[in-house]
Write a structure and sequence with these properties.
Largest sheet: 12 strands, antiparallel, barrel
Structural class: mainly beta
Protein name: FrrB
Organism: Phocaeicola coprocola
Shape: globular
Strand order of the largest sheet: 1-4-5-6-7-10-11-12-13-14-15-16
Number of helices: 1
CATH superfamily: monomeric porin ompg
CATH architecture: Beta Barrel
CATH class: Mainly Beta
Radius of gyration: 19 Å
Strand content: over 45%
CATH topology: Porin
Distance between the termini: 41 Å
Number of domains: 1
Order of helices and strands: HEEEEEEEEEEEEEEEE
Length: 245
């Protein structure tokens, strides 16, 4: 029953995504954006999910609400292909969202069965204090993560990030962890340190990122970022860089 409800919600989101641009011509209150990142590696919450990748994004926002489509495809044919849809709301530092993650390699996109799907549905809640931001994420449907005994783990993740300016660059220090036993945050299929199970609380990512704006013209600059990431739970260490277009 839940998967049927989720399926209908996703179809509704698709309808909104398709129809909104038409309405935007009649009013200027919607904010639309499109962009793309080129990254040297796809590292997500301390998990190695691919090598050099292109990651496009399109977003529509209105009065705090937003609908975002994001994807990734690697240059290597074995890299993961992913498409995510996020419906979110943000006001005065508070944010909440629901994301549908879909990856290739399993059932097709429109398979939403409890045990026959490549989707993961995640809820997020967070607050940005300016000097520090905190976020909590929990899988609630689809591939939600499981415990060693086969019961549902509802795999979760929380993160804390602190921005600052140093040497003319914008920096962010971030730490993230999974609070309880699950098989979801285990290093990614491409990680040589991948484990079968996270047995309890585990720090999955400690990272520091530097961002620099490369000025191309008077009206256009190209953000360049580099990030060092360590996953203490899987002993993974990564250094990635990227350009945002």
């Amino acid at each position: 029953m839940m998967m049927k409800t989720v399926r209908n919600a996703i179809l509704l989101l698709w309808g909104v995504l398709i129809c909104y641009p038409v309405g935007m011509k009649a009013q200027d209150k919607f904010d639309a954006s499109v962009g793309m990142d080129l990254v040297s590696g796809y590292i997500w919450r301390g998990q190695d999910l691919g090598n050099v990748s292109i990651q496009p994004e399109v977003s529509l926002a209105y009065k705090g609400f937003s609908l975002t489509g994001w994807g990734t495809v690697g240059f290597d044919k074995d890299d993961i292909k992913e498409f995510d849809l996020t419906l979110g709301y943000e006001v005065k530092g508070f944010s909440c969202s629901v994301t549908d993650y879909w990856t290739n390699g399993g059932p097709g996109y429109f398979h939403y069965g409890a045990h026959n799907t490549s989707h993961t549905f995640e809820a997020q809640i967070g607050y940005d204090f300016g000097f520090l931001s905190v976020d909590w994420f929990t899988n609630f449907a689809g591939n939600i993560g499981y415990k060693a005994d086969g019961s549902k783990a509802y795999a979760s993740y929380f993160s804390v990030s602190v921005p600052f300016v140093l040497g003319g660059l914008d920096w962010t220090v971030e730490a993230g962890a999974t609070p309880w036993e699950n098989d979801f945050y285990t290093g990614g299929e491409n990680s040589s340190y991948s484990k079968d199970m996270i047995n309890g609380f585990a720090v999955c990512e400690v990272g520091i990122e530097a961002l620099k704006e490369i000025k191309i013209s008077e009206s256009w600059s190209l953000p360049l970022f580099a990030k060092a990431i360590w996953n203490p739970s899987t002993e993974g260490l990564y250094f990635v860089a990227g350009l945002s277009f």
